[in-house]
Amino acid sequence: MARHVPLYRALLELLRATSTCTTLVPLLLPLSGDPGQDEEDEDEEHSEGQTSVGMLLAKMKTCVDTYTNRLRSKKDKGKGVVKTDTSDPEPEGLTLLVPDIQRTAEIVYAATTSLRQANQERKLVECSRKVSSRPKPLYVLRSVEEKYVAAMKKLQFDTFEMVSEDDDGKVMFKVNYHYMSQVKNASDTNSAARSRRLAQEARLDIMKVLITGPADTPYANGCFEFDVYFPQDYPNSPPLVNLETTGGHSVRFNPNLYNDGKVCLSILNTWHGRPEEKWNPQTSSFLQVLVSVQSLILVAEPYFNEPGYERSRGTPSGTQSSREYDGNIRQASVKWAMLEQMRNPSPCFKETDVQGKITIFQPAHPEQLHSKMSGNKRNGGEEEERSAERNERADWGERTRSNPITLKGLHDQNIYNRNTYK
């Protein structure tokens, strides 16, 4: 953002001008996807998570408010010295941009609020005249998954009190965190570029992420927890990412996910790759890291992620090895990324309701368990597998009976962030 200040200021000026024109203010609100639906239906749909210019601008204002508060807090505490670079043009640009964002957000909010109130008053008058009712349009009959996404979208990014400081400034963690030692040993001297970059990404330096496995993969419906830490030289170096869902360091879920939690990706500089695949301080972002984990690691055929195994893809031996590998991954996903997450959910993600995430897709899970068991029977031990299957189904039934289906779950990209705050 700081590298495109003139562009952002021009857009903000356009939004302020739009807010002063009554006929254009509706463009700042969510747009209807169905021309035939009435405004009452529109408001119902908007409340379930449609994006609008006004909402995005409000989020941007929250971001810059967090940014300015953090810098002010550092300044007031007087702990450490923030390094500055006189040759860096970003601070001057942000000095101009931040108040522009704050002022524009207030103007747009006032204009859209006034329009909403006028629309509500008009609808009350119209509703009083209506006598007959009409059936709901088809778009209201959304699938369970669509309702699931809408209900949880507001929890996609949130904060949790993972760390605090005592009167002496000593850092204390309230949850288990892989990079605890780095945080405690980190110098109070911070890079101004790092602070600005973190603020612009609406993140703090300590984070937990929950990613659910995509459908039609051995990881489907599993909830995988990652610890993330932004090192002192960020963004010159990539964030540190560690997988916490490892079955007590007993399971290697992927050739790129070690049982000690190491995540191998070119963008994290933990795996060799072409220069354009590695972390770039100017263009790379944390969102790219999250998308890479889901799209490059949690894939349908993880067996072929192993270097050299790609050559066996499509061959009888490669297909058989991949099936056996997938069977083991499915079993581990059910045990550690589903059942264990239900029994012992992370405190940071209790509000996302991991149990609700699983029970809403309850009809699919017994089939997933059966598929996993059937795949393993081909390798022998059928009686043992039948016994294991009965136990798994009994455990599953007991848990789902005590947890009714909810409309809570993860976002359509199945990624949830929890920042820390003090």
TrEMBL record:
Species this chain originates from: Dissostichus eleginoides
Pfam families associated with the record: UQ_con
Keywords, sorted A to Z: Signal, Transferase, Ubl conjugation pathway
Signal sequence, renumbered to the chain: 1-22
Single GO cellular component term: nucleus
Region (Disordered): 32-52, 74-94, 307-326, 361-422
Sequence ranges assigned to domain UBC core in this UniProt record: 170-338
Name of this protein: Baculoviral IAP repeat-containing protein 6
Ranges of Acidic residues composition bias in the record: 36-46
